[in-house]
Structure formats: structure tokens, C-alpha cells
Amino acid sequence: MSVPLFVAIPLIAHVLMSLLIFSIPHLTHREILFGVVVPGDFRSSPEGRSAIRIYRFIVAILAIAGLIAMALWGREFLPVLLLAPMTAVVGGLVAFVWQNQKLRPFAIQPSPLRELELGTEPERLPWFTWLGMVPLLLLLGTAWYLHANWDRIPPRFPVHFGLDGNPNRWADRSLRGVYAPLLFGIELTVWFFGFALATWYGSRRSEPLRKPVLGYLVGIQWTFALLYAGVSLGPLIRLPVAAMALAGLPIILVAAIYVIRKSNDPRAPVDPTPNECWKGGMIYYNPNDAALFVARRDAVGFTSNMGNPWSWVMLGSLLVLVAIGFLVMR
């Protein structure tokens, strides 16, 4: 018996998400385990192996249980398709914090922060940063194309599709109906470009993940631009829903692999942030640290210093962006 598309897609997403959570202990630097800075050989110690084994067991049980629930009851009880992945994520976070607390007695203090690493002199951006302007030009070009072919746009057309691929929301040929996805896409690409610049100038110059993270964020811009350009061109160019949603994923995948490789580079310095400033190994709060972004201890990439007021400004701007998107797209 074949599995419907609206069940198969969440199933695949659940498996991929569970695999990512399962691999978290090996995504970070070898001397960081569950958000705790430990000696280089600690992972092979009984305590280290036990922590990894318990974490994996919890994640695997939740992943398998969710997979079975989605396969058996997903078609009749649709909330299962959402609850199963959420349970796996929440359970993984709880297991991570639990192991973080257990390993704290084995923590070693990293090297002190060197504030001069932030510097005040201007620093040249990597050349690929300006590729982040291309998604904006793509969306503006899409807007021009729609304007030039206005009379070819149907009076009524689908703008949202369910997991089964069938349209479940329609729009009229109006300024809002035609240009709303493009407007939201432009907002997203501009915000992410500003966020990318903030990660470059707000992190320490000695941080080896600066360039990879910057490239990853530029890749996200391209993904959003391709998605919203494809959705906006739907009334004129019949594009498969899956093609629109997946067009930019190869860009993000390549960038993510590069970030992971850099994060696991044994030659890279260990995160210098004080252990006592990390909450659960996930949240960094240090008002005395001038850095706006620091390397994550729970995965790869950066996390913001919640002790820096600018972190709250960025969070607020993101919430405003989501609110505007909700008003524009509804």
C-alpha cells in the first residue's frame, strides 16, 4: 500500500531531523561535548562514552516511536504528523541539557577571552558576500516580469498548496495578490543579508567559522529568493511545488557541509567563552563580552550573546518581520 504524499513528506522530514539530532555530539569540536569544554581524550573515557550512549538511546527511541506513529495513524489523525517531529526535537533538547548537567564536573576552563580580537579597524568582507545582493535583484526582476505580463496573469490563481500538492488557498489578480510573496521574500533576503554582515563584524576575528557561516547565510538568501520567485511566477509559469521548495536546498547543503567540516577541524582553537556564562550548553549570556556572536556549543555555527543588547534588537526585528509577513501573506 503506497504512502500518500502528505504523509511521506513529514516522514522524510522526521527521519532527517532525527538523524541531525542524533549526530549532535559529533558536530562540535572534539573538546566540546554537550556544551561542556572537556579534555581532548574525554570522549573515549567511560563517562564520555556513557553520556553519548544515553543521549543516542533517548533520541533513537523517540525517532522510532514517532516514525511508527506517523506511519500508522498519520493518515487518520493529522496532528501526529506534527507532534511526532516536535516530540523528537524537544526530547533531544531535554536529553542534551541532562547530559550537559552531568558533565559539568568534568569541565575545564578554556583560555581567557582576548577582547582585542574584535578590533575597531574596518575589515574587508569576503568576495562572496556580495553574492547576497543577487537574490534581491532576482526578486526585483521577477516583479518587473510580472508587471510586464500583467494581462497574462489569470484573474484567480492558487498561492498555497497542501502536503498532498493540491491548492488550498487562492488569490486574485491584484497588487496584493500578485506581489505579496515577492514583498515578503524581499524582506527576508534583506534581513538575512543584514544578519550575515552582523555575524561577520560581531564575531571575533580569530573565529574560524566566520567565513563559512557568512557563506551559509548567503546560501539561505538564495534559497528564499528562489522559493518566493518561483511561487510568484506560478500564475505564468507552471512550476512543480516540490521544485520550488527544493530549488535552493543544494546551495544550503553545500554550505552546511563546509560549516560542519570547519567546525570539526582539530587545528581550530577551542571556544574561549567562560563555562559559567553558558546556560544548558545552549544559551550564552555574558554582558562583559563585547562579541555579539560566538561559536555554538550545542551544534555548528554561531549563537548570539544574549548579554549584548544588540541581540535583543535583532530578535525584535525578526519578530517584526514575521508579523509583517503574516499581515502581507494572509
Brief account:
This protein is mainly alpha-helical and 330 residues long. It has helices spanning 5-22, 46-73, 79-103, 134-148, 175-201, 210-232, 241-246, 249-263, 309-329; strands at residues 32-33, 36-37, 156-161, 167-172, 278-279, 283-284, 293-295, 302-304. α2 runs antiparallel to α3 (79-103).
Describe the structure.
With 330 residues, the protein is mostly helical. The chain has two domains: 5-106, no CATH class; 115-329, no CATH class. It is 54% helix and 8% strand. The protein has nine helices and eight strands. The strands form four sheets. Strands 1-2 form a two-stranded antiparallel ribbon. It has a two-stranded antiparallel sheet with strand order 3-4. The protein has a two-stranded antiparallel ribbon with strand order 5-6. Strand 7 and strand 8 (302-304) form a beta hairpin. The longest helix has 28 residues, at 46-73. The mean pLDDT is 83.
Topology summary:
Layout: H1 5-22, E1 32-33, E2 36-37, H2 46-73, H3 79-103, H4 134-148, E3 156-161, E4 167-172, H5 175-201, H6 210-232, H7 241-246, H8 249-263, E5 278-279, E6 283-284, E7 293-295, E8 302-304, H9 309-329
Antiparallel strand pairs: 1-2, 3-4, 5-6, 7-8
Helix pairs in contact: 1-2, 1-3, 2-3, 4-5, 4-6, 5-6, 5-9, 6-8
